[in-house]
Amino acid sequence: MGGTKFFGIGIAWAACVLALLLVVETFFTSVAWAGDKKQENLFQNPSFELGEANWFLWVEAGVATFEVVEDKNAPDGKKVAEINIVNPADQRVEFDQFNLTIEKGKTYTCSFLMRSEKSRNIISYINHREPPWTVYGGKIWFEIDNEWKEYYYTFTMGSDTDPNSGLVLQLTARWEKCPLCSINGYVWVDNVKLYVGKYISLRQAVKPQGKLATSWGTIKGSL
Q: Which residues lie closer than 8 Å to 7 by C-beta, 6 or more apart?
């Protein structure tokens, strides 16, 4: 009789623990989904796991190529975009994605992971994809080096909703007094995001300094 009673208590205790675990799991699953929804990425194929789909390389002059390659050190997934600027010819080389809708009054954050074979200056912006090519939030400058870093900027859409917007990552250009604006070499890109709201790091909370966040190597090493 005593053994039966103990066995019954054991089953009851196990059932309580199981129920508690289910509640905890449901809670954290809900939190996770809430975070995902809050940071819904508006870009398609953001980490290039689907190859070159949805991404375009535009070369004003000179020679540049784009392909998706496997990289054992890829920050997100197994693949990265690789742009080889063979001859910039002092003209624009852009890496773009189109077909975005930017809604009036909403605040957006654009972020991307990038590194470059040689130190270079780039510009990133969101704009209307036909004349007059209106830029929303300004053109943002970054200096890129050979270490994976996350770069980002935040802007509020002050114009009317635009269903024909796109991202421009301008990798070369012809500006005076900018020695790093038009050089050759490889550039790698990964995990490109555009979402509604202020900047959020899912890896580690990093306070932006200027427009440059903590390097990916530092973040990854701390996990």
A: none
pLDDT in tens, 100-126: 999 999 999 999 999 999 999 999 999
Residue 165 sits at φ, ψ, to 5 deg, of -110, 170
Backbone Cα Rg of the chain: 23
Neighbours of 187 (CB within 10 A): 24
Beta-carbon contacts of 10 under 8 Å, excluding residues fewer than 6 positions away, are: none
Q: How far apart, in whole angstroms, are the C-alpha atoms of residue 165 and residue 72?
A: 33
| C-beta of residue 67 within 8 angstroms of C-beta of residue 125 | no
Task: Give the global pTM.
Answer: 0.75
For the record, the structure tokens of 15 come out as 């059932």
Q: What is the pLDDT of residues 41-94, one digit of tens each?
A: 999 999 999 999 999 999 988 799 999 999 999 999 999 999 999 988 778 899
